[in-house]
Amino acid sequence: MITTQRTVAKWMAIAALALAAALWAGHARASAAQSGAGAEASAQPYVIEYYYKTKWGHADEFLALFKKNHYPLLRKEMELGRILKVSLTAPRFHTTEDGRWDYRVTIVFKNAAIANDNFDSAPLLRQLFPDQDSYKKEEQRRFEILDAHWDLPIKDVDLDGH
């Protein structure tokens, strides 16, 4: 009976080791897959849409200030390779006031890490706009004439995927 108990204990230990090895191997495969997916995702462009709703009658002023003070910074970031593309759209017709927006700026970043890396644009801004007092007043004005502003990271959805 002692021999049988030892044999059972021995086989249980072997089974436990085999189970642990199988679980570890599964975890290792899952980690590798996640790392691969993470690396793949970090290589994918990352898109954010920025919506601006101006106070009535100020859309043209907002656009002029955006093109003068913010677009040059975005172009510099494109030169640095951080941003792949910048586009600006406006609705052709009007909507209800609660859903109204005047401009949508779409920025395609190189990847999600770059889009969220807290890039310090101050040196570029000093280079682009030596008269920092005027720049700051105009940027303050650009945001004073807004009723709302929101940022929306977006992703493509594969309609043919499973």
User: Radius of gyration in whole Å, from Cα?
Assistant: 27 Å
| DSSP, total strands | 4
CATH class division of the largest domain? Alpha Beta
Shape: flat
Which architecture of the largest domain does the CATH hierarchy give at level 2?
Answer: 2-Layer Sandwich
Average pLDDT, all residues: 84
Give a verbal description of the structure:
With 162 residues, the chain is an alpha+beta fold. The protein folds into two domains: 1-43; 44-154, 2-Layer Sandwich (Alpha-Beta Plaits). Helix content is 54%, strand content 20%. It contains five helices and four strands, in the order αβαββαααβ. The protein has helices at 2-43, 59-79, 112-115, 122-128, 132-144; strands at 46-54, 83-89, 103-109, 146-154. Strands 2-3-1-4 form a four-stranded antiparallel β-sheet. α2 crosses α5 (132-144). The longest helix is centred in the first third of the chain and has 42 residues, at 2-43. The radius of gyration is 27 Å and the shape is flat.
